[in-house]
Amino acid sequence: MSQILWNLSADKVLATLREGKRSDGRKFDEYRPVQVIKNVSENADGICRIKLGQTDVVAGIKMIPGEPFPDTPDAGTISVGAELLALADPTFEAGPPREGSIELSRVVDRGIRESNCLDFKSLCIREGELVWVVFIDIYVLNFDGNLFDACALAALIALQDTKIPKLDDKDKPVKGEFAGKLKLARKPVMCTFVKVGNSVVVDPSLAEEKALDARFSVTTTEDDFISAFQKGGEGAFSPEEINKCVALAFKKGKELRKQYCE
Amino acid sequence: MSQILWNLSADKVLATLREGKRSDGRKFDEYRPVQVIKNVSENADGICRIKLGQTDVVAGIKMIPGEPFPDTPDAGTISVGAELLALADPTFEAGPPREGSIELSRVVDRGIRESNCLDFKSLCIREGELVWVVFIDIYVLNFDGNLFDACALAALIALQDTKIPKLDDKDKPVKGEFAGKLKLARKPVMCTFVKVGNSVVVDPSLAEEKALDARFSVTTTEDDFISAFQKGGEGAFSPEEINKCVALAFKKGKELRKQYCE
Amino acid sequence: MSQILWNLSADKVLATLREGKRSDGRKFDEYRPVQVIKNVSENADGICRIKLGQTDVVAGIKMIPGEPFPDTPDAGTISVGAELLALADPTFEAGPPREGSIELSRVVDRGIRESNCLDFKSLCIREGELVWVVFIDIYVLNFDGNLFDACALAALIALQDTKIPKLDDKDKPVKGEFAGKLKLARKPVMCTFVKVGNSVVVDPSLAEEKALDARFSVTTTEDDFISAFQKGGEGAFSPEEINKCVALAFKKGKELRKQYCE
Amino acid sequence: MAKKTGSEETVTYVDKSGKRLDGRKADELRKIKVEVGVIPRADGSAYVEWGQNKVLASVYGPRECLPKHLANPYKAIVRYTYRMAAFSVPDRKNPKPGRREIEISKVSGEALARAIFLERFPNTAIDVDVEILDSNAGTRVAALTAASVALADAGIPMRDLVAGIGVGKAGGHLLVDLNKAEEDAPDAVDIPMAILPNLGEVVLLQLDGLMTQKEWEESQKLAFQHVKKVYELQKEALKKKYAVEGNSGDMEAGARAAEEGVVE
Amino acid sequence: MAKKTGSEETVTYVDKSGKRLDGRKADELRKIKVEVGVIPRADGSAYVEWGQNKVLASVYGPRECLPKHLANPYKAIVRYTYRMAAFSVPDRKNPKPGRREIEISKVSGEALARAIFLERFPNTAIDVDVEILDSNAGTRVAALTAASVALADAGIPMRDLVAGIGVGKAGGHLLVDLNKAEEDAPDAVDIPMAILPNLGEVVLLQLDGLMTQKEWEESQKLAFQHVKKVYELQKEALKKKYAVEGNSGDMEAGARAAEEGVVE
Amino acid sequence: MAKKTGSEETVTYVDKSGKRLDGRKADELRKIKVEVGVIPRADGSAYVEWGQNKVLASVYGPRECLPKHLANPYKAIVRYTYRMAAFSVPDRKNPKPGRREIEISKVSGEALARAIFLERFPNTAIDVDVEILDSNAGTRVAALTAASVALADAGIPMRDLVAGIGVGKAGGHLLVDLNKAEEDAPDAVDIPMAILPNLGEVVLLQLDGLMTQKEWEESQKLAFQHVKKVYELQKEALKKKYAVEGNSGDMEAGARAAEEGVVE
């Protein structure tokens, strides 16, 4: 759609929200249906494809032995990349990552890293010499809004699914053999809100994202911690709105975790 | 020439071919004269400049000691780069390699690599530690059609011409001293056809390339093997056309090999 | 200002010079006032911000242990980068360095390197293993002409100011501890002239640079050596003009060195 | 890289009962699955599973060609982008497009172009993007197979579908649709091909390795013979979608492709 | 990277007398200095020292948006570029902009945009560039603080100034304006915020680390309470410049910002 | 890199009979060969061998300047690209243009610009591309020498030809046209220069190393004295081509250059 059509669409989204309704009939705090698809790639060490409504993303894990950082010789690490594939939307382009995908991948990265859901010390193979680098590569296959939650959830389930390759005596992975599963200490679930006019809704559709004034993502854990915030968009939130979002994120996070991550 | 002029030129090429003639008077299976110029660069370990008609290319070899790939600790390797220099044509631009030069360099690379003309094991200096990397850098100096054959031939003759540097005890090349010549087990020669309308001709001129529907390159060896194919262009070939090209490529390859590679 | 306004400004600069005057009232051989500001960054190992008139640049030094080049195992090295920050001028853009900043950083680099003002051998930590790499990063904060002299002077004073970090037994710098100061054997000072019409003036203002036909930089040392030349611009100098510039550069260099580098 | 020789030399690529390493016969394709319309945002899309290979293809266009200086006033241009997901290969692939991907994109786009009535859409671009999610030899032909179905799904008028197939040699045997283990044979020759089955034309053809003229001619015959299977699967998938969805609006061409095997 | 644990665990982040490692109280800001108009070439500029952090900000615009396809026919766009000097960190920073800098630039530009009457300047760009010359935790909020003052200095009409502040947790204590040593605490949570103080709105908010809902609500209160100090310093600096320079021409808006605390 | 000292210190750069390492006298140029019109596709071209240095230069233009925002409404712009082939140096050069090549391109383009009547061709670009095929000190002056002849061959009206020359110092001796071995002397100073011989102007001048004012003035004299030889070779080469090819059409200016030594 052209910018003009999106502007008309945005007007309609706003008008509908003012009447207390969402254009796709959902309640303000209602997620679209989630579909979890596994085994999408045998070459991945862990994999998960998520459909959140029509938003379609896939996260794949590769465990690669590498050198530790000098200041953490006994700890592995993660590396997250998210790519908005040209096939997912008429406006996405092949090319180097833009700021949108950089923000997306960094938010997913911190959501995993800072929640301490992975024990980086357990990813040490030989202190000072060799550690696991957990590569998390996420691709957006169809764009219909709320990439943040879809990508974070796909990454989490893919990590849960990940088998650690067995290494031979030359530190090369032995094809088809595994030394166990990756262990997660926590399951951080991200929950994203957008504000359109004065309404705040969860799990925005594409039309709602195109109409948004501001976006706010809250990641929560099963042991009742907030583990991440990210605010975006050219609008603002009041402190009260933020607190409401946080409370709702705990509730929704619990539901999503129960349904898809156990 | 502008696109419009090239379109007129293409019409003329096509009309001429329909009359059974080529615009420069050659027969359909006739190459332009080839001129081989050596010693173009003393700093190269091997060098060959080829003029094929007015197409002018130079291939230079540098033998550089490097680490082997982990999965082939006892084998050297090659690296081929082809650059369409801005000085060679009004439409070429300085800058990162485009798909045209990437295809060209990869086709030359595979033509050498997959024909087993170089014994990669003989390029091992110390297993697991040091091997020869044979850098083949090709530059197009004047563009008058059929870069594929000109570049492949220049690369082959440059390899034939290559002296292996002598290394001192710190593995640094000793200036001006050599440990022998690079040995080639085979001499793969590429032969390129273009189809314009229903005519198929060998060694296309620039005007013929601008008029082409499809392009087909066949590399053959002196021991009667096909070693490479590459089809390009937005047109198609019938199976019969392909088979005819293959047969002719053997004949033309033999002639070129005899004249320029012995 | 648009190109048209700069053209008008250039006409005025030229007319004024023809009357034997400069548009800002300075004499032809007169520098603008220089202000030296130190301690701009505690994280830098050496730092100097220079205001030359309204031209404002900062040079910071980081001493980083690194591997020596194979052919100089007992010598450290320097690396100079100069960036024309987007905040310094309406026409500067964020992005990869353009030819202007590349020339600037290379001229500053050679001015230090080739004058032998740093004893690279004294920057060796352990021969063949570890040497100091002296990173000199220069940022232009406000552009009002004559970046060459401002950046060269800032780099020199920052080097004079540099403390060598103390390394622990793992070759990591110990925070806040130093093993001494960097020693300079010479103090090369650059002096830049521009030619507008038939007039040659020192320390060009922005308006004079926009009007310039040619630029000429001369670096001199306190022991009466020329250590660098760099000519730029689409104009030319006569041999006599060059010799006059050289003579004046010695005089001005002496003054600047005395005032700001002792 | 030089191919490894060694223990592999004793591998038997076709055993006495005529079976290959994975149990197939010499001229047997791996299992192929074709789905249409898998990416709702796209004008056309398809998903192909071909053995372990998994490929998504989307089509956007014909649409305005930007930047404009790339537009052709006489016809549409095809921009084909072949990319492999980082996790789609045994080692992790650097996400930055490599030279291999750029070359494959070029020759594949040229192959597709032949099948489209490009001259009907001057000054436009048809963007075809394929993503490889999992791989085991033969991804470029699986990708073209998917891309061609996605074009039909987008309702773009075509001369014929483009069907991909691999032929080649391993352990001295001519084989159809080599898998990775076979491609690693010391004497392996892999020949990816794309064919317009109804028109009997070859639009993509690459070969690397050593093969006699006679072996090639035999291989080409095998390709033409077995590409029909791929073609049938493409048509079935299109038929299946358009049988369900009906036959309205811009789906017409795709529907016709399903009915008649060829779009026009 | 995983945070180091070890000897640090025994660090006392707030001692018995209520003092932090650097002597501050739990809710005490570091020393902040704001200067206006430090870059003569720019349309507006500001310099902020915030503890060890040193930040320069410049504004160019509103001006023609190039390349034109980025322009918005309904409003000005804000292009915010946050960069760290190579020597501004303990190790040398690679001068090439990293992903961290790109993300910070994006969310900071969005934060600033809220404060500006963008719709008055359709098809234009407002370029805001900030350079970090020295750093010790909290650079992005210091940068936004400087950028907002530079916008006022450029005479750009604004709803409110944007004031930055950090809040968070270290060693179990909720703290205002964490420094680097505190951010390195094993349980550290850093929450950079940007606030429109008069409107009571949050325009930038990021959090990483583990924190209870209650701790967050407490932290947010601290932020709103102490951001006023930052706001006062911004206004003072603007007042100081425009008191001296007078009140003419395009300085008007900036001057008014100084007088009234809000530009419009 | 720091220059190596050591065994080199005992090298005698000019022996008792006045001979240099390669047998030349102190003020003797290496052997120079100039050919015109070596690249048929180009509007003008030239080849220069200068000792071991081998340089090709081409000229395209004056032609429309794209992208248009680079065009100057008052004159043509010169875009000079100096590149070294990967195999043209003792170690392999990374084919990506380095900072050295970019700087040389900039100052060389400015040097050439002085010689051309640019104001006659507003809004156009003159693209000059030089490729170094083999090197042994002095490539930038060989390149300018070739480029200037290529400009004349393209029929572009010029004030004068641009002739390159190197002067400098090694082992305490002032030398003309240093080779690599001489440039590696511990006290080496290399001074590449480009001169408009008829106008007596210096358009390129760089110096690195330590030299007294007196030595420089002596060196400059040597440069002006010996650049005439280069100039003669340029003129001869142009004369040779146009004597054979005749004097028609757009070759006119080049021919006149050959006849009169200066184009206008």
TrEMBL record, chains A, B, C:
<dbReference type="InterPro" id="IPR050590">
    <property type="entry name" value="Exosome_comp_Rrp42_subfam"/>
</dbReference>
<dbReference type="GO" id="GO:0000177">
    <property type="term" value="C:cytoplasmic exosome (RNase complex)"/>
</dbReference>
<dbReference type="InterPro" id="IPR020568">
    <property type="entry name" value="Ribosomal_Su5_D2-typ_SF"/>
</dbReference>
<dbReference type="InterPro" id="IPR001247">
    <property type="entry name" value="ExoRNase_PH_dom1"/>
</dbReference>
<dbReference type="GO" id="GO:0016075">
    <property type="term" value="P:rRNA catabolic process"/>
</dbReference>
<dbReference type="GO" id="GO:0035925">
    <property type="term" value="F:mRNA 3'-UTR AU-rich region binding"/>
</dbReference>
<dbReference type="InterPro" id="IPR015847">
    <property type="entry name" value="ExoRNase_PH_dom2"/>
</dbReference>
<keyword id="KW-0271">Exosome</keyword>
<keyword id="KW-0963">Cytoplasm</keyword>
<dbReference type="Pfam" id="PF03725">
    <property type="entry name" value="RNase_PH_C"/>
</dbReference>
<feature type="domain" description="Exoribonuclease phosphorolytic">
    <location>
        <begin position="188"/>
        <end position="251"/>
    </location>
</feature>
<protein>
    <submittedName>
        <fullName>Exosome complex protein Rrp42</fullName>
    </submittedName>
</protein>
<feature type="domain" description="Exoribonuclease phosphorolytic">
    <location>
        <begin position="30"/>
        <end position="165"/>
    </location>
</feature>
<dbReference type="InterPro" id="IPR036345">
    <property type="entry name" value="ExoRNase_PH_dom2_sf"/>
</dbReference>
<dbReference type="Pfam" id="PF01138">
    <property type="entry name" value="RNase_PH"/>
</dbReference>
<dbReference type="InterPro" id="IPR027408">
    <property type="entry name" value="PNPase/RNase_PH_dom_sf"/>
</dbReference>
From TrEMBL, chains D, E, F:
<keyword id="KW-0540">Nuclease</keyword>
<dbReference type="GO" id="GO:0016896">
    <property type="term" value="F:RNA exonuclease activity, producing 5'-phosphomonoesters"/>
</dbReference>
<dbReference type="InterPro" id="IPR027408">
    <property type="entry name" value="PNPase/RNase_PH_dom_sf"/>
</dbReference>
<dbReference type="InterPro" id="IPR050080">
    <property type="entry name" value="RNase_PH"/>
</dbReference>
<dbReference type="InterPro" id="IPR011807">
    <property type="entry name" value="Rrp41"/>
</dbReference>
<comment type="similarity">
    <text>Belongs to the RNase PH family.</text>
</comment>
<dbReference type="InterPro" id="IPR001247">
    <property type="entry name" value="ExoRNase_PH_dom1"/>
</dbReference>
<comment type="subunit">
    <text>Component of the archaeal exosome complex. Forms a hexameric ring-like arrangement composed of 3 Rrp41-Rrp42 heterodimers. The hexameric ring associates with a trimer of Rrp4 and/or Csl4 subunits.</text>
</comment>
<keyword id="KW-0963">Cytoplasm</keyword>
<dbReference type="GO" id="GO:0010467">
    <property type="term" value="P:gene expression"/>
</dbReference>
<dbReference type="InterPro" id="IPR036345">
    <property type="entry name" value="ExoRNase_PH_dom2_sf"/>
</dbReference>
<dbReference type="GO" id="GO:0016075">
    <property type="term" value="P:rRNA catabolic process"/>
</dbReference>
<dbReference type="Pfam" id="PF01138">
    <property type="entry name" value="RNase_PH"/>
</dbReference>
<dbReference type="GO" id="GO:0003723">
    <property type="term" value="F:RNA binding"/>
</dbReference>
<dbReference type="InterPro" id="IPR015847">
    <property type="entry name" value="ExoRNase_PH_dom2"/>
</dbReference>
<dbReference type="InterPro" id="IPR020568">
    <property type="entry name" value="Ribosomal_Su5_D2-typ_SF"/>
</dbReference>
<feature type="domain" description="Exoribonuclease phosphorolytic">
    <location>
        <begin position="28"/>
        <end position="157"/>
    </location>
</feature>
<keyword id="KW-0271">Exosome</keyword>
<dbReference type="GO" id="GO:0000956">
    <property type="term" value="P:nuclear-transcribed mRNA catabolic process"/>
</dbReference>
<protein>
    <submittedName>
        <fullName>Exosome complex exonuclease Rrp41</fullName>
        <ecNumber>3.1.13.-</ecNumber>
    </submittedName>
</protein>
<keyword id="KW-0378">Hydrolase</keyword>
<dbReference type="GO" id="GO:0000177">
    <property type="term" value="C:cytoplasmic exosome (RNase complex)"/>
</dbReference>
